[in-house]
Amino acid sequence: MADSAIPLDLIRPSNARAALVLAHGAGAGKDHWFMTGIAAALARVEIATARFNFAYVRAGRKLPDKAPICEAEVREVCAAVHVAWPDLPLFAGGKSMGGRMTSQTQAATPLPGVRGLVFLGFPLHAAKKPDTKRAAHLRAINLPMLFMQGQRDALADLTLLQPIVAALPTAQLLVIPEADHGFEVPKRTGKDRDAIAAELAQAIATFIEHCIAGPTR
Questions:
Q1: Distance CA 126, CA 130 (A)
Q2: Which CATH superfamily is domain 8-213 in?
Q3: pLDDT tens-place string over residues 81-98
């Protein structure tokens, strides 16, 4: 894609009504089953997606780069997609660390053209170390935000996250029953990965539709 040196994996359905930049989590790249599954599910609800690998993944390293490096890449990709698809309202976010890097980037300086943020498992704290420091920057964001969390997410104690989201005037929280941080659910739920991806995609599409429509009077 022009204006970006970062390779992008683009999916744009013929009837696309918006675009979402999806950044991956710390432990897996853009081709992880969750990332490809959610992108495919979003295409079915008319949302185009742009996925990319952070530099450390492209270099074959496991340890993520420092936040400023990841944030700069989020900004570069969002700018490129905004230029390439000027006809599509643009949204950004991602899985776990990718979502947090996106929110930190937006909090520092608004991302070009981005109209809302989507978090697929916001990593509020490290496992077994409940804390809220990672959420401090969210107060600086004036965009609509959608938090989607598993009920059993070990990286986001819901008793901590729920009041944080409730205090943000532009944010909303969707809890997926019995899901963990990777949105895996027990077999007893009767839901497989495709069903969860479809549920998440529909929630994202509804959120985007409301953002595009604007506040009702």
A1: 7
A2: Alpha/Beta hydrolase fold, catalytic domain (3.40.50.1820)
A3: 999 999 999 999 999 999
